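Researcher: Please generate the 3D structure of the following complex. Treat every line as part of one assembly.
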Amino acid sequence: MNDSEQGTQTKIGRRDMLKGLAAIMATLSASGCTTTASPDLDAFLQQHFWKLSKADLDAILARLEKQYAEQFGRPVAVKATPPLEGVTFAYALDIARCIGCRRCVYGCVEENNQSRNPQIHWITVLEMEKAKGVDLQHADAYYDRPLVPEPGRFYMPVACQHCSKPPCVKVCPVNATWTDKDGIVVIDYNWCIGCRCCMSACPYGARRFNWAAPRLPADELNTNTEYLGNRPRPRGVVEKCHFCIQRVRHGRYPKCVEVCPVGARKFGNLQDPKSEIRYILENKRVYILKEDLNTQPKFYYYFGI
Amino acid sequence: MRTAHKALIQTGFILVFAALFLITIVNSEDAPRRADEPLVSPGTGVPPPSVDNAIAVAPPPFSEGIFPCSDCHEDLKVNTTPRQLTKNHKNIVLKHDEQNRWCLDCHDAKNRDKLHLAGGKLVDFTESYKLCGQCHGPNLRDWKAGEHGKRTGEWSGRKQYLLCANCHNPHAPRYKPLQPLPPPVRPEDLKERYERQ
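Model: Done. Output below.
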């Protein structure tokens, strides 16, 4: 009798607990992420990008927009544009035509909100001797000349190669970086733990680390931003080229293509047989940087002349 | 009676399925979304890849007040003898196969506002690439395909293209050297610079 009474009590207790849990879950899910009072707690409780529902994502974007607006005193748009259907982005760069003027480097900095101090550049322009060919051992990234191109030298801008087999993605212990469906290797700065494994894995030295809190003047901020792209980064995360997601997923050319004065930079859809990128791959001599590593970049160097 | 019964059951089934379908649609709004799954949100401004590849070509880079040429040349007598110009256009130094050519090989003597091809056909300054392409055939081919020259605008839609003459001065076409932007800060200097500011 006593036993059975106790049994009933236990049963009721469990039911009560389940009911209570259900009620809490319902409240949480009904109001999305916005239930908690503090944005810091929201950021801490954020799920991995792949697991986010539409409502979760919208709440995160709204939170970031608010945070950046307070930080910079300007309205900032943060979007999370999904990859386009039937599109694989690829890039081609004419080494024969590049004159090493570094317009792309600074165009990229302005477009993608890199830290001005400590300085972060996503594109490194290497100067090499024509007589030696592509010789990374003796390449100079710090050349300072009154005029370029210097006779007898050629120039090779290097940024993320958007590998089809990216070693950086392979080594990331938390899946904070991955290849999106349109071929762009992206980073979730909210998920990155700053371990820099990807930086040591990347054979192209394309990834950059925010050693200090990035300094970016408010009037130089590009307010058209993407969650996986050019939104302002916090300290302690890795960043790199993302083919200007904020532009290319809306049909436009990346910034570096548009600022290049000699038209050495080409961009397009690998799946479109009529695109200029396909024309280049089918008709020009193509060079793949460190092809022997089998990273299968979607960044192709070529010789247009 | 039997048919009526059957119809009732059928209607019931349809209603139940419709309800299930609706529930699925409503729930899918909040279903977890994988990163590689395209989320087609209307109004993102993404043009479909099949938008006609209309190409707008930039206007020819005339110096201020130089065009139309006929404004001055209307009243001048045409002298078809190849020579060095001494009165006007002295700033033009031909460095483009200058041994074999001079002004009127490209500029038309009769219609001053046009250029002419080798066969005598007149072309506008806005179509000067046809003239350039007579000698530089592979470059014209590559330019049309989007390989030679700079394109701006949309990779999947409308683009703007530059004329040959926008980058290459037709009278001296070699691309002029530029002053490069400053080199990056060396890693060993980053910290010092950061602390200074």
